Amino acid sequence: MSEPSILQRIAAGDQTAVSDCMDQYGDLIWSLARRYLGMDADAEDAVQEIYIELWSNAGRFDPNAGSEVTFVSTITRRRMIDRLRKKGRKPGISDIDDAPESALGEGEESLPHHAELDNIEAAFSGLSEQHQQILQLSIQEGYSHSEIAEQLSMPLGTVKTKVRRGLIHVREQLKINSESE
Q1: Any idea which fold 6-89 has?
Q2: Bigger pLDDT: 36 or 60?
Q3: Which pLDDT value is given to residue 127?
Q4: Given this model, what pLDDT does residue 36 score?
Q5: CATH architecture of the domain covering 114-180
Q6: Extents of the domains making up the chain
Q7: What is the DSSP string of the chain?
Q8: Residue 6 pLDDT more than 80?
């Protein structure tokens, strides 16, 4: 019988496992937090929340379902995505009175047009509905390939292939569009 993992020890109430968890996974959690949120206080808050969530959900870890590092990185990534979504919904701190008058122009003409966004949308719309759904779940919503496979009742290999082919298609379309401009 093998030794219990760090998360299993935390779930069992082992106080030394908490510091072992921080030592073992601290760099991973911090690197993901910095990648998603940058080097600000928001990343520090997120890391604290992630540790709390890891400790409170340690009992859910099943070594037969996946590795401990996968469990930790999945929880971390999900919290970062949740945080970014929440942050995106909050109004900015600056007041509209602080905006330069040129930014408050009349009508759509004052908004910058993003041709790159149009190209991405066009490339994406050239995909089948199933490819679009799988890429949306993967890229926009942050689900792993295995989570997508489970959600859509598809084999994992099929999901991986569709993600890869979809990304290749979008990349090729973007290359074609940028060369034709």
Answers
A1: Rna Polymerase Sigma Factor; Chain: A (1.10.1740)
A2: 60
A3: 83
A4: 82
A5: Orthogonal Bundle (1.10)
A6: 6-89, 114-180
A7: -PPPPHHHHHHTT-HHHHHHHHHHHHHHHHHHHHHHH-SSHHHHHHHHHHHHHHHHHGGG--TTTS-HHHHHHHHHHHHHHHHHHHHHHSPPSS-GGGS-GGGG-SSGGGSPP-HHHHHHHHHHHTS-HHHHHHHIIIIIS---HHHHHHHHT--HHHHHHHHHHHHHHHHHHHHHHHHH-
A8: yes
